[in-house]
Design brief:
With about 600 residues, this protein is an all-alpha fold. Helices cover about 80% and strands about 0% of the residues. The chain is rod-shaped and about 180 Å long.
Length: about 600
């Protein structure tokens, strides 16, 4: 005994210690999830046992928690059970609202979606719609419930929802649609082995067939099958009070085939004791029809007729008013929620649009700033290249000029030496000594001349390579579009051809065309020339300088002397740039008027 108690005490301590360790290792969020999961499990057990769900407040807290921290299935489950709790308390509008929330929470695109619970959601919604006489809503909900039930292979529940939708079609007066659905339901029940469910569903089909003369044989067949195979009958072959509406359908059949005694018998058997007055309407309606056909104006017929009228006018009217109030309450609540959601969506959309607009403006400003910096860098890079090119070209021209001067001086010195030699020979004074001196001086001068010429030639060769390298730079090539197009014009090509013939010159038409073409491509330069230069010869000289032609080439084209060209270039440089020299004119034109070398 003692050992048994000791063992139980140890087990208790072990379980308590495990609980403490589990609680210490569990975060508050996990603890709350476990707590609310237990609340929903308990509510689900009550729902499956057809007990009323009473812990509404706890379920509401679970809904709030799972809406923030739960998966789509958990959110749907919580809202569904919340709707069931309101259903049990008789609050139809809130029940529908939570069912709708549950349907909206479901992620039907996910493979893990709980389609069976989603079918239950729509099935519960359909039940409430039926009580509120929202028949169109009920039909849509039944169709969705059947569809999602079929997706989970819950064939029975899918067929059941189709079966229940037939009643809504009958209440809407669309018996043909109800008949099509019920015939399909009969086939599905039979194919899947649900024989008793098939018999149960056939009762409404008997009601529809009994009203069609060409289908009375089918009605009789279904009546025989139900009477012989249904398990609804007790040992005395009687139906319970809740199932006696079948007798009304059977009486309707016998009335259609003209057997009024049988019809009266079954109409009377359809009476359901201890049921509301409205539930007795089929009995009184059937008896009234029989008495009218018999032309028996006795008290029973009068009572039945009066009672049916009273039932139709008072009870049904009260039911309709009650249903209208419930419908209005639901619609107002639902529409109010939809309006709030639309307003919130519009507000969110407005905020998103403002944010997107601000972001686009910011990106535009950043892009504009980056583009401005890029253009500034490109301009500076182009300016540096132009300055470098102008410097190299200027040095090249200086060296060429120096070589020309050196050559000219060399020829003058040689001429002087030769004159001295002739004079010495003429005077025959110290012929040999003087000849040796002159020869030595002549050789020395030739050597110095060749060395200087070699140095200048090498320097010019390096400058030519540098000029070619500058021309190949991408920035310079990209910036030469305007100049290239100018140099590719017909008049410029004609001028290039004239350069090969020293005897050719520019005609009057060529000069006018050259001025007009230059004005098109370099309007700023031509405007400045118009403001300072009057002579067209000076303007033509400036344009030929833009073409980077040498002085002799310009002189040949204009049929003037080289000195005249030099004077004009000096004048242009003075008037346009304030420099009293002809050599820097081309460099200054490139810098000021964005003229790129070609």
């Amino acid at each position: 005994m003692f050992n048994s108690q000791s063992s139980m005490f140890k087990d208790y301590l072990t379980a308590l210690l495990a609980t403490i360790i589990l609680a210490a290792c569990t975060t508050p969020a996990q603890h709350r999830r476990a707590q609310f999961t237990r609340v929903l499990d308990h509510a689900q057990e009550q729902n499956l046992a057809y007990d009323s769900i009473t812990n509404v407040d706890s379920i509401r807290m679970a809904v709030n928690f799972f809406n923030r921290h739960g998966s789509a299935n958990e959110q749907m489950r919580a809202s569904y059970l919340m709707g069931c709790a309101y259903r049990d308390t008789g609050d139809a509008p809130r029940a529908l609202e939570n069912y709708q929330n549950a349907a909206e929470r479901a992620d039907t695109t996910s493979r893990d979606c709980d389609f069976f619970r989603l079918s239950c959601v729509f099935s519960q919604m359909a039940g409430i719609y039926h009580k509120q006489l929202l028949l169109s809503n009920e039909i849509k909900a039944r169709e969705k419930a059947a569809y999602y039930a079929m997706r989970t292979d819950s064939i029975y529940y899918g067929i059941y929802d189709l079966d229940m939708s037939a009643a809504a079609y009958i209440m809407k007066g669309r018996n043909d649609s109800a008949q099509i659905i019920l015939e399909k339901v009969q086939k599905l029940y039979g194919e899947n082995g649900f024989e008793q469910e098939k018999l149960r569903s056939s009762r409404v089909l008997i009601y529809l067939y009994a009203q069609q003369k060409d289908r009375l044989g089918d009605a009789r067949r279904l009546i025989n099958e139900f009477d012989s195979k249904s398990d609804m009958f007790d040992k005395n072959h009687e139906l319970p009070p809740s199932k006696r509406l079948y007798n009304y359908y059977k009486g309707l059949y016998f009335e259609s085939v003209g057997s009024l005694d049988s019809a009266e018998f079954y109409y009377r058997k359809s009476y359901r004791p201890n049921r509301p007055v409205s539930d007795q309407e089929p009995t009184y309606r059937g008896l009234l029809s029989v008495y009218k056909k018999r032309h028996q104006a006795d008290s029973i017929a009068n009572y039945a007729e009066l009672y049916c009228e009273a039932n139709d006018s008072s009870v049904a009217k009260k039911d309709r008013e009650l249903m209208a109030q419930m419908t209005a309450s639901y619609n107002y609540s639902r529409f109010q929620k939809q309006a709030f959601e639309k307003e919130r969506e519009a507000h969110d959309t407005k905020l998103i649009m403002l944010g997107v607009t601000a972001l686009l403006l910011l990106l535009l400003l950043v892009f504009w700033y980056q583009y401005s910096q890029y253009k500034a860098r490109k301009r500076q890079e182009l300016m540096d290249i132009r300055n470098e090119y102008a410097f190299a070209t200027d040095e090249y021209q200086k060296n060429t000029h120096m070589m020309e001067m050196l050559d000219r001086s060399h020829r003058a010195v040689i001429k002087t030496v030769q004159n001295e030699l002739k004079g010495a020979l003429a005077e025959n004074l110290s012929y040999k000594d003087e000849l040796a001196k002159v020869t030595q001086a002549f050789n020395t001068l030739n050597e110095e001349f060749e060395n200087s010429k070699k140095e200048l030639t090498e320097e010019n060769a390096q400058l030519e390579k540098r000029i070619k390298a500058i021309k190949k730079k991408k920035a310079l090539t990209m910036a030469k579009g305007k100049d290239l197009s100018f140099f590719e014009t017909k008049i410029v090509r004609d001028i290039r051809i004239c350069l090969g013939n020293p005897l050719s010159c520019l005609t009057f038409e060529n000069k006018e065309l050259l001025l007009a073409t230059a004005r098109e491509y370099y309007p700023d330069l031509m405007d400045d020339l118009d403001g300072t230069i009057v002579n067209s010869q000076e303007k033509l000289t400036c344009i030929l300088v833009v073409l980077n032609l040498r002085g002799t080439e310009c002189a040949n084209l204009l049929k003037v002397s080289v000195q005249r060209i030099t004077n004009i270039k000096q004048l242009l440089n003075m008037e346009l740039f304030g420099e009293n020299t002809a050599r820097t004119l081309y460099k200054n034109l490139m810098r000021k008027y964005d003229i790129c070398p070609v």
